[in-house]
Design a protein that fits this description.
By secondary structure, the chain is α+β, with helices and mostly antiparallel strands. Helices cover 37% and strands 30% of the residues.
Length: 185
């Protein structure tokens, strides 16, 4: 939709001080809002993004280093977290970091009557009974991260997950097309 996020990746570089990990790279995710300073919402999203990225980055190949992923929100018209996840994955891929698999973010909005809307706008999110965001890996289509806002039944969550896993195929095809376009020049 009209939501866009710019991703910048820095590293692996030598880590300073107490953040050093002898087992692997230290990953830091910074989410910058369109205007103003980051707040509680951005910090919460940063944690979700960092955990998702850590699940796929093969950090053991870069011990005692730091990797910083900066995500700048350019416009937010809904489905911001899934857009951030997709930008993060494309940033990691473009930087050439070793990954166990790719991942994508899919947001579902659950209407009052149980209807499922994929990639909802900000207005659809406000009117929804529940908004669910999933991070799905490319190899087994398993869930790397899930977050919900609002309430839904277990069955509805499973229906949303199934819809998100089907939608993930389209996103992974977009990744393939983007990489093919970039490297076929």
């Amino acid at each position: 939709g009209d939501t866009s996020v710019l991703a910048g990746l820095y590293g692996p570089v030598e880590v300073k001080g107490s953040k050093e990990s002898p087992d692997g790279a230290t990953l830091e995710v910074l989410l910058r809002p369109k205007v103003g300073l980051p707040g509680v919402g951005e910090r919460s999203r940063e944690q979700l993004l960092r955990r998702t990225c850590e699940a796929v980055v093969l950090g053991a190949l870069h011990p005692r280093t730091a990797i910083t992923l900066v995500l700048q929100v350019l416009s937010d018209a809904g489905s911001l977290l899934s857009c951030c996840l997709n930008a993060a994955c494309m940033g990691l891929l473009d930087a050439g970091l070793p990954l166990s698999s790719l991942f994508c973010g899919v947001t579902c909005a659950l209407g009052a009557q149980g209807s499922i809307v994929l990639d909802p706008t900000a207005r659809q999110e406000q009117e929804a009974r529940a908004v669910l965001t999933f991070a799905i890996d490319s190899t087994e289509r398993k869930v790397l991260m899930a977050t919900t806002k609002g309430s839904c039944s277990v069955e509805e969550m499973q229906q949303c997950l199934a819809a998100a896993q089907r939608a993930a195929d389209t996103i992974f095809q977009f990744y393939r097309d983007s990489v093919r376009r970039k490297y076929s020049k």
